[in-house]
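Re-run with default settings, no changes from the original entry. Doing this only to confirm the output is reproducible before filing.
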Amino acid sequence: GSLPPGGLPPVGGLHGLLQPVPPGGMGGVPPPGAPPLPPPSGPPPDMQGSAFAALLAQQQQQSSALAAALARPQGMEGDFNSALTSQQHSQQQEKVKAEQAQEAARVAKQKREEKMREQAADQAQADKLRCHLHKKAKDKCKFCQRYQDFLKGIENRDAKRVAGTKQSLMGASLDASGREVLEIANPKTYGLSPLLQTHIVESAHFKALLSLETLDQLVEEMHQFADNIEPYMPNSNTTPSALFCCLYRLFTMGLQASQLRYVVEYPDNPYIRCIGFLFIRFGLQPEALWHWLGDYVLDDEELRPSKDSEWHTTVGEFVEGLLTQDKYYSTVLPRLPMSTKRQLEAKLAPITQCRKRTRANKDLLEVYREEGVRVEANAGGEWRRGVTVDLFENAPSRIKVLVRWEDDTEEEIHLGKVILSDSRYTNYQPKPSRGRSRSRSPRDGVDWARTKGRSDKELVDEMRKADRDKAVCASGKEYARKPVGYKAACALPREQGAASHRLMEEETFVPMKQSSRRRSPSPSSKAEDFRKAPSAEHQARMQQLFEKYGMAKGTDAASTRADIDAPDVMRFG
């Protein structure tokens, strides 16, 4: 019953429980079924108290180990319950997904049924409007024309629906909160050249713009400093302009579609609008350009390259240049695919006629404000008949007319694509306003408020023919114009502003525009005789030679010999 010299035996987990109990069992009592203990031998009873205390401590350790061993199955049971819970959660998710798929299938089926019913109704209406006289449509038959207008209306309605679904998120995507986030075509350089990007990032102005966190703060900065549409400051090739610094800050800020629309439609400051247009041209995908810029091609708000510039243009012409040109000043614009470029050409070809028609129709705004005026409008390249419903003048630089077609559908058309066809206003003349002359007849003799002009197809063919002729040389066998090399380009005159022009004059003291003096084709006879006459010194020397060698005596002798007949003598040597 004595302990080993090292104290209590080691107890570890279940192994400790399986260790044999010292003789005497628990407190000297043998366990049940055990043989009787032999008579005690060893030290006297007063020395066995310490051994009993040690056995009690050992029993407590064994009971704690037993509790730890019994706790293990409970943990495994908890893990099993958590596994069952996760499995039930996954089953519930699959059930929800299946219900959503069934709901989507039900909605799609409902849409297909509605589309079939709509097509059946359109077919029935078309059968009613079909001409009963002609199997093939005639242009002069009013029944055939009504039937054709109905079919065109159905096609335009379907095309609008398809375009609406495609263009609703054109150039944008929805984030987790449901907002439209613009997708940048090149998030690394934002479409800018590496040199210009380096100049912008290293400029002090852009570093100061990094402290602006909201769009309102950046717009206020544009108000104060954006007064030039060029990429660089005047008289510098390394300092970017404030406009391009603000443009690059817009790229790094991450605009939403609604914010970009706010910038391009900003009132009373065309430079802020130009920043939005440049953001679209440099940053967005080529397929999204017309969706964003098409409404502003006919914008007639005045725009000057700089605030002190005498030359001015319009915002519409600025946007048209972004869509048609390959360079913006000296900065190369992102390349457009040929398919996109041809589509833009087809849409931009009639723009010149539309601008003339806009100027003519602005004198007839009183007529277009009335409801029920018969008009013809160009929608999708085709002229259609309709009546006016309303005139939208909230944007004075791009006025639109709400037209109701003959199939009772309505559409907003720009003022430059509408002509008057109402017989009540055939001889209508607008009232002269202040500052305008009473006779405002068009310069080309065409009444653009009532004339359709040339067709879009003719204008597109003419534009493409001009582009082909521009790329071909007319002299010799050079079929293509040789591209200008680097050295030749250095010798070309560079576009300069007024400040740069004056600076060069002050530094060189030579006027840049020298008056070109042309020689007269036939100089005066007196001046010519004066240039050909010998000098006095030359005449004096010749006189001395004549006197020295006696030219006069020789001439007298030759004259006397000429009077006597004598044979001709030829002397050799």
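The chain has a mean pLDDT of 75. The two ends are 170 Å apart (CA to CA).
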